[in-house]
Write a structure and sequence with these properties.
166 residues; mainly alpha; two-stranded antiparallel sheet; elongated
Length: 166
């Protein structure tokens, strides 16, 4: 009732509900084992279907197995990083709208933007959701991004070093 000025789909609490129901965005709230399983599946699928064949054409697996492996793994990690980054950006957008005291919205189109100041009750609810639902998800996604980017850089540097030594 307090949010009647803002269209239903643009209310931060409804954006969070929609985000939590979207297939890939739910990964941020999975248990650690399920989350790791999803990321590993994505990594292995991309590495074997896309990265493996390209690496095998670039490097002879029998003669350059390390280069082939590093190239294949790097391609899989790049896709994982991009996927997690997309999920992170979605959660970050909703989190910022939940934590903000005022939110912009559009009634009918791009040309009629409005600013809505949240009443204290809505602000308190939204900030609780932002702190206890969104922030932990963002922390997990940030750690995943840092880890995957670090490993991908390590693989790319190792591959570059191996290739420069030949």
């Amino acid at each position: 009732m307090l949010e009647m000025a803002v269209p239903y789909d643009q209310r931060p609490v409804n954006e969070l509900t929609h985000l939590r129901g979207s297939p890939m965005y739910t990964w941020a709230e999975l248990s650690n084992s399920e989350y790791a399983k999803k990321l590993t599946t994505l990594f292995l699928a991309v590495s074997s279907i896309l990265g493996g064949p390209i690496s095998a054409q670039t490097f002879a697996p029998g003669e350059q197995p390390l280069e082939c492996f590093l190239s294949t793994a790097s391609s899989g990690l790049v896709v994982v990083v991009l996927s997690v980054l997309r999920v992170y950006l979605g959660w970050s957008y909703v989190g910022n709208r939940l934590l903000s005291a005022v939110i912009p919205y559009e009634e009918t189109g791009w040309y009629d933007g409005q600013i809505w100041a949240k009443p204290p009750e809505v602000l308190a609810r939204d900030r609780l959701l932002g702190l206890y639902v969104v922030k932990p998800a963002l922390g997990r996604l940030k750690n995943t991004l840092l880890g995957c980017v670090g490993i991908a850089l390590l693989f790319i540097v190792a591959l570059t070093w191996r290739l420069s030594g030949q």
